[in-house]
Design goal:
Layout lengths: L4 E10 L9 E8 L2 E9 L9 H7 L3 H7 L3 H15 L5 E6 L2 H16 L9 E2 H9 L8 H8 L9 H16 L6
Parallel strand pairs: 1-4, 4-5
Antiparallel strand pairs: 1-2, 2-3
Helix pairs in contact: 3-4
Length: about 180
């Protein structure tokens, strides 16, 4: 790995498919090379709109988050401070996600809406695309179950944002190490 780059595995749970109309409900993040260095945040919904299926997948309760979640601004401030404290001087934080376009869209939207800047910049590494290029497979073969079969991680996803971020970190570390190549 390039010492000037800090790979951060990020996973989110949301109340629906798009930012702006639906809420970011939880963020889990960890360093790819040190998954124990992590953060987990639950946010107060900023919209009542929700997809019951999205809530069923995450198991999160809008009512509970309304009472106990951080304000979105405080959550993004806390996440940004964690990123800064996790970096060495001069390092660039790199967003790594499994289906990064989805997770990054919420994180980017919330950073800009509440803090007017995104510490990740305007790019992310999508693990599905990375895997496809690394092993020469089809898009259909980039499902997490297919990646798990090829890479053989020890952990499993469970729709808790932090647990899933750690699972993704393990998968990405295995990809970087050249595992799963055909």
């Amino acid at each position: 790995m390039n010492p000037d780059e800090l790979y951060v595995s990020v996973d989110v749970e949301t109340s629906g498919p798009i930012p702006g109309e639906y809420s970011l409900l939880s963020i889990g993040a960890c360093l790819v090379d040190q998954p124990a260095t992590s953060i987990y945040l639950e946010l107060r919904p900023d919209s009542p709109k929700h997809d019951p299926e999205a809530l069923a997948v995450s198991g999160l309760s809008l009512e509970k988050l309304e009472r106990e979640g951080l304000s979105p601004q405080q959550a993004m401030l806390t996440f940004g401070e964690w990123l800064k404290s996790s970096c060495q001087t001069g390092q660039k934080v790199i967003f790594v996600g499994l289906n990064a376009p989805f997770d990054w869209s919420f994180v980017n939207y919330y950073f800009h809406k509440y803090l007017e800047t995104n510490p990740f910049g305007f790019t992310a590494i999508d693990m599905k695309a990375y895997f496809m290029g690394a092993v020469g497979c089809s898009w259909q073969e980039t499902k997490s179950s297919k990646m798990t079969a090829a890479l053989k991680p020890l952990s499993e996803p469970n729709h808790n944002a932090l647990d899933d971020a750690r699972f993704q970190a393990e998968l990405f570390a295995l990809m970087l190490a050249g595992k799963g190549n055909r």
